[in-house]
Amino acid sequence: MREQPLGDELLTCARDYLKSDVLPAVEGDRKHGVLMVMNAMAIAARQLRNGDRFELDELESMRLLVDAPHCGLLEGNRLLASLVRDGTYDPGRPGRDALLKHLWRITEQRVAESNPKARQD
Amino acid sequence: MKQFPEQAVAKFVQDATGARSITVSNVSLLSGGAIQENWAADFDIEGGDYHGRLECVVRRDSSASGVAISHGREQEFALLSRVYASGVTVPEPLWFCADASVSDTPFFIMRRIHGVASAHMIVKDLSYAPDRPALAEALGRELARIHSVMPPDRELEFLSRPSGEPALAKIAGLRYFLDHHHTPYPVLEWGLRWLERHAPVTERLALCHGDYRTGNYMVDEEGLTGILDWEFTGWGDPLEDIGWFCARCWRFGRPDLEAGGIGSREDFYRGYERESGQPIERSSVFYWEVMAHLNWAVIAIQQGERHCSGRERSLLLALTAHIVPELEWNILKMTETG
Question: Whole-model pTM?
Answer without folding.
Answer: 0.94
